[in-house]
Amino acid sequence: MPSIEGHISDLKIKGYCCSQLVAIIAGLEPLDEENEGLLRSLRGLCIGMYKKKACGALTGGACALSLHLQGNSLTEACRELTEWFEQRFRGVDCKDLIGDAAGPAMICMDIVQETCEKCLEMLMEKDCL
Prior knowledge:
The chain has helices spanning 4-13, 18-28, 36-42, 46-52, 56-68, 71-89, 94-98, 106-125. With 129 residues, it is mainly alpha-helical. The protein has one domain (4-123). Helix 2 packs parallel to helix 5. The protein is globular. The two termini are 16 Å apart.
């Protein structure tokens, strides 16, 4: 398998957006699953629900975690991910992260990569991988 960065690039070329990328890499692939319905539904989270609201990488990360965890473990993991994300990127909304850019900026791919890495790290710590 290529590096996470290379894998993101390969998937991006196929048309996947931020939320889908994180859900694929940190959610579906570790489970060796495919779920086109889930991926179609995650398209609605792209570019902050197309309004530059909650970042798709973050919401995709929460979805990825929910494929592996449930109950209090999921609640705690989502809180941890959100706190990490907010500290790391100084915000959670696309508008705060990319400003007035018309669409996703290059920084988005860095955010997607770091969010994938964080989710995978969290899942390893919880013995899910």
